[in-house]
Amino acid sequence: MQTNTYPHRPVRRVRKKSSGSFTNVVGNIWNRMGNPKNPKLWRKVFWSVIFVPILLVAVLFFCIAVGVFGQLPTFEELENPKSNIATELISSDGANLGNFYVENRSFIEYGDLSPYLVKALVSTEDARFYRHSGIDFIGLSRVAFKTLLLGQSGQGGGSTISQQLAKNLYPRDTVSSGAMVKAGKLVISKLKEWITATMLEYNYTKEEIISMYLNTMEYGSNSYGIKSASMTFFSKAPSELNAAESALLVGLVKAPTRYSPVIHPDKALQRRNTVLSRMEKAGYITEEEYENSIKDSITLIYNPISHNDGIATYFREMVRLYMTASKPTSRGIYQTEWDFEQEKMLWDNDPLYGWCNKNSKADGSPYNLYRDGLKIYTTVNSRMQKYAEESVREQMEKEVQPAFNRQKRVYKKLFYNITPDEEAGIISRSIQQTERARAMRSYGASKTDIEVAFNKPQRMKVFSYKGVIDTTMTPKDSMLYYKSFLRCGFVAMDPATGYLLAYVGGVDFRHFKYDMARQGKRQVGSTIKPFIYTFAINNLGYNPCTLVPNLPVTIDVGTGDVWSPKESGEVVYDGVLHELKWGLAHSRNNYSAWIMKQTSPEAVADFIHKMGIKSWIDPVYSLCVGTPEVSVMEMAAAFSTFANRGVYTSPFFITRIEDKQGNTIATFSPSTQDVISETTAYTMLSMLQNNIVAGTGGRLRYGYNIMGEVGGKTGTTNNNADSWFMGVSPKVVAATWVGGEDRSTHLVNRGEGSVVALPVFGKFMNKLYKDESLGVTPGDKFMEPVGVVHYKCDSGDGVTDESDKPLPKAQDSKSDEMNFFE
Asked: What pTM did the predictor assign?
């Protein structure tokens, strides 16, 4: 019998080699521990050490799963993860005009990614991505070994792409004051990420997880998602990125600011090359590709996205205000009861107006332009928009503003044709209306306190056409400085469809937020006269050849007073009979007043509203010389009636809206209304063309060589306060306004519409003609209606009827003369 030499130890027996099972390993450890005095107690301790942590982890996982530490995302939430997706505004030719966003993020599909992006991401962030199901236990073991046993802190690589995606979609809650509590929350959050990552892997393919990851990450420079990042740093689609560009963007994920190629180009280059090295080691690129890529320096086409910058900034803001408008109430701020009624009609009849507040998502909440990832398809053509902005900028920067600056130096003042008291009132009101003054009043500041604050110099950056200027001035001087810049509004439409083609509300949206295309309304001057003449032809039976004596017109306004319009410049009333088309071509006020004398101002005002002017028109005789205040957009739409064969089409700028999944959730169509006959519209087109051939719009021909079928009308209000030009061609109708923020800020000389506003249209049309892809040519013709009457005023009775049909209700010159003197 074999005796036990060591009574407290079991007899060691010769064993076969262990199979390596967990039980054998534990048994070997136990045998090596010796024979403790209380074996049962030690066995309990031993097994407790082994199984209690496992049990605790299991209980912890169970508690997390049932929501003890907060709810995990449901499968429905995983199918539709919530994220702040930017709404995209898309032009008619497929270009992105801009985004509405909290985070500038747009989603794209896996098929729209460059293969290099996928390779760079996998090789850098998760080399075993295609071999695990959400948790990389090998990677975790490596990190744990280096961190716990080797003491190497800051070890990365443990989190898989799926885990990082889970963290981005469902951020951690680790806010706590205590270190232990914070650590506990961090552990729980990590375990929740594991579970969520596994759920993501169960619900999505690997390709979908990669696209979701790239779509949710932040890349710096206000770009969220790979599409925004690609456009911001390289101005190209993600599918067009090469290996080096893909490596740069993937490298940004780790630390967008530290590795920003704009802020830290050296660090960005180093990080890019690190990613390229990992791609080469993983076999995703060849050694030759790697060597060629690291030789290249970082070449950016940096185009940061901003609400204030980019193309169509005023249009974007107009769309935002239009779609998010609230239902009008009597508590709103309206200049007249008419404006309130028009707003209510717009709300009731236009489904786009206030669309976000009229429509709800499946959960019952209203649509949010900044978070819901909508795609809004517009009628604006991106190239036409670019040409319009260039034309406005060229005219204002090179011609109008230099002329006004010279005038300021000569006269040494900003305001004209007003008294010192009126000037002081303008300045005081302007100060009190600023956002800064409103904020000071909300904290109890008095009017005097505000004026004192506005006279304290401070550092600021101000606008100039040559770039932003960093300077020191008082807020008051800054306000006056901005008032010294003349403004411009421009709108171009397709007359046949009502489509808005281009929209410019000012020279620089960042510094001049007030939109002079739709928001601002100014007196229209002589551009109202075509409507007066249209009324005479359509309602009174006159024609372009109707003869009217060139004499002053005096009208009894019915209150014992009389009204007689004045003419612009030196005018001789010689009493000679001239045709109506002569009166329009020379923009004579007495001819418009003569027409008004044949009817009532109420009838004319009502007619002009039908032509498309929705703003209030005071029904007085003087409206015929342009006293109504109207927006540029209204004028463009109303003049389109002439080129659209007498049919008014409301301005139309959104065709459809899609949700973030690409489903069409709304479509729109323009509203139309028959206003005048086709023959009347064509007759007016001939008169508008005559304005260019032999009238105040002649500069369009000799200055800009526009010789095709193009009509127009200039307009200038008193003291050149408002300068207008309306251009009408078969495929494009455009309205241009130029003036100051205040009517007393204007050009004293050479400020007429033909000088300052007409050139914008001339430049714009020449740019369109040069771009043959737009289909706008000098050879475009107005559509001639059947049975049209062609007027040749040099013939006997003023009518050449090529259709052999009599002109209805035509009056001869004798009856016209008698009416004039009545």
From this structure: 0.80
